[in-house]
User: Fold this.
Amino acid sequence: MRLTFINGSPRGSKSNTAKVMDYFIQGFLETPGNSCEIQFITRHRGDLNALAGIFSAAERVLIGFPLYIDAMPGSVKEFFESLTPLAGRCRNIELGFVIQCGFPETHQNRFAERYCEKLARRLGCCYMGSIVKGGLEGMAIQPKFLTDKYEYFFHALGLEFGKSGKLDPVLLEKLSRPEHIRQEDLANLIPFINKALWDDQLEKNGVLDRSFDRPLEP
Amino acid sequence: MKLLIINGNPSPGNTLFEEFTRDFISGLRDAGHQVREFVLRDMKIKPCTGCFACWVKTPGICSIDDDGRKVAREFIASDHVIIASPLIMGFVSALTKNAFDRNIPLVHPHLEAVDGETHHKKRYDRHPAISFLLQREPFTDDEDIAIATAIFKRESINLRSTLGFIRFIDTPVKEVLDAINIH
Assistant:
């Protein structure tokens, strides 16, 4: 089986999208004969038609991106626009997406997921579903049980996909938890994220006391 | 009211869109609004790289020194921002989205609970209302509009703004002008 993974993260190979998809691809490649080609949208910005050509010749494609203000990043939208001539012509392509965000609840990705599903139909692709996950910002400071969970589920999804060519719905659902966060958990989680993810970086950069600056104040 | 029109139409040859926008803006001026228009295709705005310098290194300022900063500055100084874009592959243009992504310096990295979800804190006291003026594609259907509308609603929540109106350029200009006043 041949997989093309198009990584749309503006952070490219150093992105959280790349990190988790490395686990997926490792699992995918465990089935003998499977191969995976990885493309980065950032490297094709000058000539997206070349990437559109790679897309149109592919069998199975996953397009991954981080959520940027509730949708795909602008550079990923540029790639989607380069696919315009292919609308309705991609009957031989199976297409899925990987959508992840920094917000801890997976639900925040669901609106972009609906868009992606419709995009797959617009292109005429067979839609394989999407891997959707919240809470992936700042993986380096997250507790090990969480990062182990990402590794386990992305690897398992890739392994299953490598055998069957399908994204296992049970694994997708388990990975996506928490879909929402209960009110009482928010009260503990939010101060943790604010401190460990943001204040520590602000402090390291010597600007913690300026974090609420308003340099564009009219 | 202080209004900002962000024109994200990538094709100057799309005269239907340009003429509507021109009439719309002159109608707004006639009604006494203070209007500024940014034509994104004539500006230099690089995509956000996700570096988060605007949150953790130079709070409130994007690390990229180009017209993206200008858009963010005018955005926060406005009462109402109207994103004007043709739908392309079911969503606002990439030109529009790249400019929009550069608005994250307007919020603070800290999260807070809003209606049971995490969202970023406001950096400024007043965030403008955000409206959308769109042009349908030949194949745009109700589902496309529902999907885009749901995302626009989410975007306005995450930028700690309010969603104004969503209108299409196949409605009379007068109707869109009225929508500003109603909002």
Summary: The mean pLDDT of chain B is 97. The two ends of chain B are 11 Å apart (CA to CA). Chain B touches chain A through 56 residues (CB under 8 Å).
